[in-house]
Amino acid sequence: MRIIGALGVALIGLFISVDGTAYGQTTTHSQFGATTAAVVDDKGNMHVPADYQTTYQILGTWAVATDNGVGSKEMHVVYASPGVIAAYRKTGHYPDGAVLVKEIHKTATKPMTTGTVSSADALVGWFVMVKDDVGRFPKNKLWGDGWGWAWFNAADSKVTTSTDYKKDCLSCHVPAQASDWIYSYGYPPLKR
Questions:
Q1: Strands across the sheet with 57-65, in order?
Q2: Which of 6, 49, 125, 152 has the fewest CB atoms within 10 Å around its CB?
Q3: Do 152 and 68 have their domain in common?
Q4: This prediction's pTM
Q5: CB distance 80 to 59 below 8 Å
Q6: pLDDT per position as a tens digit, 171-187
Q7: How many Å apart are CA 52 and CA 50, to the nearest integer?
Q8: Alpha helices in the chain (DSSP H)
Q9: Are residue 25 and residue 36 in the same domain, yes or no?
């Protein structure tokens, strides 16, 4: 009986420990899931996820044409957190907690056998967006219109230089307002 009693107490203790840990993770990692919580703290401050190049999925690449001459002046490579593509293809919407990371690179342009080619060169910085369907951070000026918005210079992936998404970010996304502020048509994996 003592063995069974001790085993029962141990199992109850384990259950409480696991339950408490799960609850603690939910409340201490903001109100998002684990993947998003690794990008957003409890006050809504964002940073570039360290492992996005190996754990996120590539949505697509944008080339920004040079102002004069041939080739591109910038390349924008966009990544989505795990599960975003499948969820979008199923519902046609970005799920709450989705993280999008856009790398901005200067380019190197040169002639190659296929023609003039621009490829990614020096990193300029990152633009991070986090989907927020419920308005979790109403006092944080980087959150609104259903997203968290932040720009990070290449020198520091932890501290944004953005101060107000309406002034710093939103104007570039106005043409995509009808598609939840994202130029989704440019991302082949989202097409059903």
A1: 57-65, 72-80, 99-112, 115-131, 147-153, 143-144
A2: 6
A3: yes
A4: 0.82
A5: yes
A6: 999 999 999 999 999 99
A7: 6
A8: 2-28, 34-37, 52-55, 84-91, 165-168, 170-173
A9: no
Q: What is the mean pLDDT of residues 77-88?
A: 97
How many structural domains does the chain have?
2
Domain shared by 45 and 120, yes or no: yes
Is 37 in the same domain as 59?
Answer: yes
Tokens of 31: 């109100």
Instruction: Let me know: does 74 contact 64? Beta carbons within 8 Å.
Output: yes
Residue 60: closest CA among 78, 84, 75: 78
**Sign of the dihedral defined by the CA atoms of residues 52, 165, 179, 34, in that order:** positive
pLDDT tens digits along 108-154: 999 999 999 999 999 999 999 999 999 999 999 999 999 999 999 99
Q: What is the CATH number of the domain that holds 50?
A: 3.50.70.20
**pLDDT tens digits, 50-62:** 999 999 999 999 9
Residues 140 and 45 in one domain: yes
